[in-house]
Amino acid sequence: MTETAPRPTLEAVAARAGVSRATVSRVVNGGDGVREPLAERVRRAVEELGYVPNQAARSLVTKRHDAVAVVIAEPETRVFADPFFALQLRGISKELTAHDSQLVLLLTEGRADHARVGRYLAGGHVDGALVFSLHLDDPLPALVRRAGVPTVFGGRPGWGDGTRSAVYVDSDNRGGAREAVRHLVGLGRRRIAHITGALDQTSAVDRLDGFRDVMVDADPRLIVEGDFTPAGGERAMRELLGRCPDLDAVFAANDLTASGALRVLRAEGRRVPDDVAVIGFDDMLPVAEQTDPPLTTVRQDIEEMGRLMARLLLRGLDRRGDEPGMGGEPSSVVLPTTLVRRASA
Prior knowledge:
By secondary structure, the chain is α/β, with parallel strands linked by helices. It contains 14 helices and twelve strands.
């Protein structure tokens, strides 16, 4: 075994800087009341000795763990296969890193995992939670509320269990869907189909509502439920062609769904966009630019959504330490969307 050198102590830093142990503690834990020349001597001694503060001791002083739980209500097979989650996690990670806070990733494969996540959040391990990809029957909102941790949701909550006043970050799903369908109508398309996302998620419901806002008298056979996956897009596209072979456009609930629909259209000899125009939603470049043809889609800034979720949570945590009257809770944010035109429509 390799022997390791003893870790520098708070006392060693104090001796090197020529100050008291209490002064070192205040500086390394972000406290006030230390004159800048002394604080600079402490910081220099910390760097020279390679001192790393003990997190448990630091938490006792700051009442913070410098850790945030990111809870994704999906199985790991979905999370690691869908670039949407990678983009959102990247935004979250960048913001937390900038504030010297650690990301703790929690996934839910089944009901047993929900109980595990609830126990972890209630155990005082993290300062707060970022929760997204929730489904309508998901117990996570109630578990988070019982755990008592500050929380920001990704996506508009649609539950009547106390989350209606929750802070969330979302995109204008309904408005983006309207813009996509209006674009198809402007191209002269009349038999416009919609492959929805999983309708137990508010984003899919909002995009369906946006479709219906424009296609008020749409043939109900032109709407088929998908699940935000390429396989779901393939299945739904086959069903649509069987029901309505004369369709001339498809608005898909996300880019992955659109990619599956495009594969079926090509296999069936339908030219895109000549015979059938296709629009997706997300503008995930690894998907939208690689489809054949490249995909016209509604862009939402997924990475920025992640950054904003983390920013709102951290802002709320900072305000909890303020004196009364120093500002209210952070407000929810709905980001705009834009139509990105490529070759598919």
